[in-house]
Hints:
Low-confidence stretches: 143-152
Order of helices and strands: HHEHEEEEEEHEHEHHEEEEHHHHHHHHHH
Distance between the termini: 26 Å
Strand content: 5-15%
Number of strands: 13
Strand order of the largest sheet: 2-3-9-8
Radius of gyration: 28 Å
Helix content: 55-70%
Number of domains: 2
Shape: elongated
Amino acid sequence: MTKFFAILKDSFREAVDGFVIYAMLGMSTLVILIVGSMSFTPVAAEKAFNTIVSSREFALIFSDRGRSRAMGIGSSDNKYAASDVQSISGGYKLRVAVTAKPNNGTVNGKPDLSQGDTFRKTVAIWSKMPGQTIKAREIAGKQDKGGKNGQPVPDIEFNLEQSASTDEQKAVSDADMEAFLKNQFSLMAGMDVTASRVNAGVEEPNYAFEVTTTGGSAVRGWPHTTKIFFGAVTITDETSLGRVLYIIEDQIINGLGGAIALLIGLIITAFFIPNMLRKGSVDLFISKPIGRSQLLIYKYIGGLTFVFLVTTFTVGGIWLVIALRSGFWDPSFLAVIPILTFTFAIVYAMSTLVAVFTRSAIAAMILSIGFMLLLYIVGQVKTIFDSLRTGGPSERMPEWAFTLVDTLNNCLPRYKDLDKLTSKLITEGTLTQGEMRMSGIGLLQLPSWTGTFGVSLIFIVLMLAISCWRFNKRDY
Length: 476
């Protein structure tokens, strides 16, 4: 262990000797400060609840009491409104009114409820199993064979049968209505609520419910006004907190920030092993009582440790300031740290191999960055081809092209798959279930964690094994 820390210290000394490490830490600090300058102001309670219940998302119906992924559109004749909002310990108490319309119109100026009304129909459809369904991919396949511009189409499923018989509507109980409202608040706003129907003074087709929520305003579905630079610039107005956090954590930090971090990490660590293999330096290292393979592995781990520490500082700092400023603590974002480090381990294994064979930092840098780009392209093409295959590949591409892409994806490390799985974690930690289902984010068919890490780990071991073999055979 003493030898390992000595080599780790040497790697760290090489990193801090250049200006790049200071620039990297400076940029990380700047990003943390910029994120820290953001404010997430919850919309006033009564306005927030009216925004939630009157949104188009709240009107969506997921059959089988919310358990089905088949999405249906509730009646536009149902009007939801919130009133009498009161703050209570740990949440809010309010009244939700539903104004519906009779399915059979009116008779002599009075509602004809003999065929039920639009709210009872909505709850009845929500309560039963979905009927005939169709997936968005099937629609896209008929229209564009794989989606617009060849982009992957989310696996959204639509319920085509939006009907309920009069008997089914009459069978809807107060408990069913209360469960429906509870489910809508949970799916669309990320709120845990209890609902109790109010019958006194309310006649059908109008309905009223006493609703109690928990979690206050720091829940993912609560509308927030987001500003940056300490209130100088407004980014969004009345957008759900989870949606804003998703964009920051996944699209900006994990997406753009992760790519930049990998590139800079490769540039810094590309010099570690070539510098060790320089004439004079390598003689000194080999003369020490340590095996060559052990020496190379320690040097490799030293590069990973350096990237891990920088990533922890950056991602951990961003996570902390977001949580403190928004009041929403999402631990799933911290998964970016080990996953990004593992992703770097893949490309750094290639850098190590090139460095041992060429002893050139420039060659290691260029080829490892090129390899990273290759992995990204293969992953992107695989995603597009999977979508094309659903829409009818024979009309778009020859079969050998699909076989080639599948083979490359199966043999090469799963660089793009790691990014997809990370995005899914962040999605589940920020967006409400309703937002995920409606947009299709997180619902695409994804690879398994085991397969993704397994294939990538085999590649890392193989690259290091070849590197160690070459290092042991070479005369210095």
